[in-house]
Amino acid sequence: MTGSEKLFQRAKTCIPGGVNSPVRAFASVGMTPRFIKKAIGDRIWDVEGNEYIDYIGSWGPMLLGHSNPIVLEAVERAAREGLSFGAATEREVQMAELICDMVSSVEMIRMVNSGTEAVMSAIRAARGYTGKDKIIKFSGCYHGHSDAMLVKAGSGVMTQGIPGSAGVPAGCTKDTLTAVYNDLDSVRLLFESNRDEIAAVIVEPVGANMGVVLPTDGFLEGLRRICDENEALLIFDEVITGFRLAPDGAQGYYGIQPDLTTFGKIIGAGMPVGAYGGKREIMSMVAPSGPVYQAGTLSGNPVAMAAGLAQLSYLKNDTDFYDKLNRKCDKFFKSLKAIFEKADIPFCLNHVGSLGCVFFTDKDVYNDAEAHTCDTAKYASYFKKMLERGIYLAPSQFEAMFISQAHTEEDLQTTLRAVEHTLTEMNA
Ligand code: KE4
User: Which of 42, 82, 251, 340 is spaced 20 to 30 Å from 10 by Cα?
Assistant: First the structure.
């Protein structure tokens, strides 16, 4: 047995499914998950010492690459001053000021400990501010595992092919309405049949939990307009896209201002951090300044803030960071597309900036139904062969590839060669 197999066997006796988050179990690719020992730059090593070029990056946080010296030094320095105080700290003020400065739609922000918490809290703030209960989400979008969001969710829920989750009472989801991504008529219909009852529309401005699905022209603008017409709030869930597509995330990249935004991943640089923020009049509703209660023992944790501040400050100050990263990634995805076209395998490649994914289907993928036409068995075979070639991709068709600043031209070329060999093998 390999080290990962031994650890997985032990883990399954005391952790549900042997993992602390379902997608890590490699269930949909039918393999033993790799137990990772360390990561540096764009590389990770498993407990056997096998080395991989990493396209997960902890599912998004590692935009500067793993073990970035600037981030590590900030964490070490902060840790020596104490791990947690349960009291206000200067770093929290600096973090809030930095995010408000980088994202113009955010006038006030609250730190929490995960993307799930950020979304759950943003929805409560939206309901408290509007006095309305219903929320529109999109089938295939994933907004964390709070009860109300586990309706036709993406990511692990979609990977497992389950409609939602056991243990969620109907009462918790009766106010969650689902529309079709990139289909404004499906949104209008819900507003017409739930007039004056909808507090907010929550959307991933780029769907990244049903594979990567881009907003069609006019989709995000249309959501903005429909929310304004119906006095509902627009919430951008930028847990993945925030600070990835641009310094001000997808809202900056596409030029649409939401009322609230949720963040995670990159703002923690690998430490557990989430946040929600937006218009002052909405955020002022949040306790202790307003009646919407939300709290957290480790919210704004000083060590986590140090990590996030280090990474975000770098992103803010390196003025050509995003142009360089996005140019590098556009070139990579263009080459990747050419390799798939040459291999004559049905595929759809969606990408924007350093986020992308290959769907094994002959359809164009603009929503979750089209994503579901994928041949997930073929994806599993592709994943396995790429892993054997030292390329660590998402162990599910319904996730994304994350490229970082640390991905070298040499490693991207190595990856493209591995794809070429893998597709030849698959076609044999
Ligand atoms: P967390 O609670 O996992 O920090 O964030 C939830 C969340 C919210 N919103 C969006 C758009 C997200 O993508 C996520 C979490 N992303 C998944 C990756 N598809 C996390 C990976 C996992 O569940 O292990």
Answer: 42
